[in-house]
Design goal:
Length: 167
């Protein structure tokens, strides 16, 4: 599967860019999945629900299924966090997997950059960053695109992945 990332510092616009890119790619007929890395504990299940009770009772995996969707919750229970490659391998086949976070992994990425964050660019330190999507004019060691120009960013990603027929 084709994998492309969006990375950057906190509040740089990563999630908004991911949301816009998913919409742009699906509007072009591509099947897209996403992976989001969180640095804090997350829980998609709520105390009191049946699935929560199954999980807290000790189930390794709980599948919650309905007519609209299903979710698989996998408890690590002290095991190592799975690698990005292991997570991608669990996905159903799609045209493109967009990854938010995982800045140190080797897959190609766009860096979301907002001047207001006060952080330096990651692009100079991470060779996997192929372009920067910025809200201001910046000097970068790679192409710079407007953070608000979703179509140009989507075109760049498709060109970089040699998926030109999908535009």
């Amino acid at each position: 599967m084709n994998v492309y990332g969006v990375t950057g510092w906190k509040n740089a616009g990563k999630t908004g860019l991911m949301e816009r890119l998913v919409a742009a790619f699906t509007a072009r007929g591509l099947r897209v999945s996403t992976i989001k890395h969180a640095h804090h504990a997350v829980d998609v299940d709520q105390p009191g629900t049946d699935s929560y009770r199954h999980r807290t009772a000790g189930a390794q995996e709980v599948v919650l299924a309905s007519a609209q969707r299903y979710a698989v919750m996998h408890e690590l229970r002290g095991a190592e966090e799975p690698t990005l490659d292991a997570l991608i391998a669990r996905l159903s086949p799609v045209d493109l997997v967009l990854v938010e976070g995982y800045k140190r992994e080797a897959h190609p990425k766009i860096e979301a950059y907002r001047a207001a964050t006060g952080h330096a660019l990651l692009a100079g330190d991470l060779p996997s960053i192929r372009a920067v999507a910025a809200d201001c004019a910046i000097d970068a060691p790679c192409p710079v695109l407007s953070l608000d120009d979703t179509d140009a960013i989507a075109d760049f990603i498709l060109d970089d992945l040699c998926l030109k027929g999908a535009t």
